[in-house]
Design a protein that fits this description.
Helix content is 35%, strand content 28%. It is elongated, with a radius of gyration of 58 Å. Strands 7-34-33-32 form a four-stranded antiparallel beta sheet, with no helix packed on it. The chain starts with a helix and ends with a strand. The protein is an alpha+beta fold.
Length: 621
């Protein structure tokens, strides 16, 4: 090594590889020597034994002249012969030594072969060792790189932990702030609710006081009229005759003069008022002539015009006159039709009880006439972009409104097959579409968690109400919109107030709502397999209807009041119709039929219609 390193001198970075080779050669010598330390001495011992055996064999080999004939042995010589047989003869020993020599040669050959094999194996092991050393170096370099990356990742983790701690602190601060703001919001909502209640109470007191003043003024006017009439009755009437003669002849002229009291001053003062009434006694009714005319017009035309109110401009409002004295309970299926190609989701009677509309998943609305206890096809309305979930007639029965899965509601005019208007603006399926008490306004509910009010004259969304849960059904009153939601709550909205006025929780997802004709009671159906009657005058649940076997089968199962609000009707998942008595709360009857999705009860109270998943429409009588 000194000789190799000498020429390189002091600067020998280039001689490092030489020293490395020398170290590897020495290492190989040591490993090979360790492998042959036992083998070489054993081989040497074998060689020594072989030489020794060869010398012994040479010494024991007899000369040819030494061979003598063996004499004949008699019986007396057998014993001595047996003793002499114990010492082997030289020939036998020579054969044995030859065999041992051959065996030793074979052993030496085998050992030499093993030496060669071991040498080859040693070379293979050395090459494998070099390969593994190279892999080890690569792995060490990779380990160093991974350790560096790990250190970098540890630094990043420390930075992110510090950032996470800061963000968690900021989150806690924001959460505390949100709690404080929620508490402030709840306080403000309570204050707003209190202010609204006070405002309503104050308006009620003001209206009561105004009515009392008007009543007192009316009584004073009536008393004054009565006094003037009494004074006029006490006055006298004078009749005078004035004869008059002329040149042509005698003529008598009788003049009769009736003297009556002058008109009272308060009548002259009322001449410019809106309501002018004739003289009447103090016992006369407070219904004026103009009011009687308005009532008669309302009865004849089924409508009245509402003036300008705080709710908005004047709109044409329809009020249905209830013609049902007592609803007839259905007892049997009078007519069964395969009306649609697939599932039927919606059914609705028109205001005249003779026109029926059904809508389903085949994107069609069929209009039917109820004639003689049978359903006769009237018309098919086309143009819906997807499955129909709800249908409704306007108060006059001249328009049909349908909710669809195509994120819109469609409006048809009865007698026209194609859609008149498309109310688009929702971002998810529209689950309910209902007219208000006028043909010019409608309300829709959707799974996009909004309820929208529509001006149908302009096909314009006049108001959007955002809700926390998606809506399954809506009903409308004078100024109130009631919506049933998937979060097991019924919400009340006033058209004149931007926020929700009341929330009534129920046990189960709300599937349908039905409002009585007097708008005093609400029927809800929910997925907890119950129907609930809510008294809107006190805003609480009045009755809960249950029955063995009744099960609300889907989120679009519909339940309705009878026209006289005496019964509640709903269809179960097994196809049975269940009817409860609203006054007693008991199950009145149950009728077996096909699977029922929705039901409808006509305004006259004579017929009930149910629809199912197989596309059938059943008329019950």
């Amino acid at each position: 090594s000194a000789a190799m390193a000498g020429p390189c001198g002091a600067g020998a970075p280039a001689a490092r590889w030489k020293r490395h080779i020398v170290r590897q050669l020495r290492q190989r010598d040591r490993t090979q020597k360790a492998l042959f330390l036992e083998l070489v001495p054993a081989y040497n011992r074998l060689l020594e034994k072989a030489e020794l055996l060869a010398r012994f064999s040479d010494k024991l080999q007899p000369e040819p002249n030494d061979v003598t004939p063996v004499p004949h042995q008699g019986p007396w010589e057998e014993e001595s012969q047996s003793n002499s047989d114990q010492v082997p003869s030289p020939d036998i020993l020579r054969v044995k030594w030859q065999e041992e020599k051959e065996g030793l040669r074979l052993v030496c050959g085998e050992m030499a072969y093993q030496v060669v094999e071991k040498t080859a194996a040693l070379g293979a092991l050395e090459s494998e060792l070099e390969e593994r050393q190279g892999r080890l170096a690569a792995l060490e370099a990779q380990v160093a790189q991974l350790q560096e990356e790990r250190a970098q990742h540890v630094r990043q983790v420390d930075v992110r932990r510090a950032r996470n701690v800061a963000q968690r602190a900021a989150y806690e601060a924001l959460r505390l702030q949100a709690r404080l703001r929620e508490a402030a919001l709840r306080r403000l909502e309570e204050e707003a609710r209190d202010l609204l209640e006070r405002l309503v109470q104050r308006k009620a007191r003001a209206a009561a006081e105004r009515n009392l003043r008007n009543e007192r003024r009316e009584r004073a006017k009536q008393a004054l009229v009565s006094q003037e009439l009494k004074k006029a009755a006490k006055r006298t009437v004078s009749i005078s005759e004035n004869p008059d003669t002329s040149d042509n002849g005698t003529r008598e002229k009788a003049e009769m003069t009736l003297t009556l009291p002058a008109e009272p001053e308060f009548l002259e003062s009322e001449a410019g008022e809106k309501l002018k009434r004739p003289f009447r006694s103090a016992s006369a009714t407070s219904l004026t002539l103009s009011r009687c005319v308005d009532v008669v017009k309302g009865l004849l035309h089924f409508k009245k015009r509402r003036g300008h109110s705080i709710g908005g401009p004047s709109v044409q409002q329809y009020q249905r006159i209830p013609v049902c004295v007592a609803a007839r309970l259905p007892t049997w299926a009078q007519d069964v039709l395969d009306a649609h190609l697939s599932e039927v989701n919606a059914v609705r009677f028109g205001p005249n009880s003779s026109l029926l509309a059904t809508g389903g998943a085949d994107r069609l609305i069929h209009l039917w006439n109820v004639v003689g206890g049978r359903l006769e096809a009237n018309q098919t309305l086309e143009g819906a972009g997807s499955s129909i979930t709800s249908v409704d007639f306007d108060p006059s029965g001249s328009q049909v409104l349908a909710a669809t899965y195509s994120q819109a509601a469609q409006l048809w005019k009865v007698g026209e097959a194609l859609s008149k208007e498309t109310l688009s603006g929702h971002t998810d399926k529209v689950t309910a579409a209902k007219f208000k008490l006028t043909r010019h306004q409608a309300v829709t509910g959707s799974r996009d968690r909004t309820v929208k009010e529509w001006d149908l004259d302009r096909a314009y969304c006049s108001r959007t109400i955002n809700v926390l849960s998606y809506c399954n059904d809506v009903v409308c009153g004078d100024h109130v919109i009631i919506s049933g939601h998937n979060d097991q709550k019924i919400r009340f909205w006033d058209s004149r107030v931007p926020h929700c006025t009341q929330v009534i929780p129920v046990q189960g997802r709300v599937t349908s709502l039905s409002l009585s004709h007097d708008q005093l009671h609400l029927l809800s159906c929910s997925r907890d397999n119950t129907l609930k009657v809510i008294d809107l005058r006190v805003s609480n649940i009045r009755q809960v209807f249950r029955a063995d076997g009744f099960k609300c089968g889907s989120d679009w199962t519909k339940a309705v009041f009878s026209p006289d609000r005496s019964f509640a009707l709903a269809g179960s998942w097994d196809g049975a119709l269940y009817i409860w008595d609203v006054d007693t709360g008991k199950l009145e009857s149950s009728l077996r039929g096909p699977h029922c999705n929705a039901v409808a009860w006509c305004c006259s109270g004579n017929h009930v219609v149910s629809v199912d998943q197989a596309g059938k429409v059943v008329l019950w009588h």
